[in-house]
Amino acid sequence: DTSIRDRLKAAYEDIVRLENQSRAAGVVERIDSPYLRLRQAVEKTMAVLQRVHPPRHAWRKLFSQDMPIPRDGREQTIAMCARVCGFAAPCPQSLLRANPAKVKAVCIFEEGWNLRPQCTAMLLAASEVSGHPLRRLGKKWPDWLQRLDSIAEAAGGEVHPGGGKGSLERLKEDAKATVHLCADLLSVLGDA
Length: 192
Prior knowledge:
Blueprint (H helix, E strand, L loop, with lengths): L1 H24 L6 H21 L10 E2 L2 E2 L2 H14 L8 H4 L3 H10 L5 H12 L6 H8 L3 H16 L8 H23 L2
Antiparallel strand pairs: 1-2
Helix pairs in contact: 1-2, 1-9, 2-6, 2-8, 2-9, 3-6, 5-6, 7-9, 8-9
């Protein structure tokens, strides 16, 4: 998908600009722009999965009579779905605590606005389908959810107000990790 490639390319261009700025001035401005692009690359990769394998009614696992089930029940359900898909425990708290209304919206409107609810919706759906790409992903890379959460956490810390505590070195590591996250997911989509 060219949009994924474009986001990654733009992030790396930002990193090179920041490295040059650091060498010239000894100071690095905010690194939120490349982090935003890295997060968007992962979101777009998840969107490819969502287009091929829409989660449709998976949100119902978190609801009873159109009302969200209690939080502990939602967390247990999501953790069980992650285990069924082969992902290592513990499932990241941010996925376990994804807003159920946002998970439902991802399923109903077939687009992901937020990475974590989108990922949670896809996990719920994948647990029902034995050949689902997320199951192949979990078997090949059981730590993928933790790596995804680490990137989302770092990006959120830079992009949202009050952020800006990251380093250029960490950004470069996260950029490499993001390329691997996207490549891992795209590779299991191609394994079908």
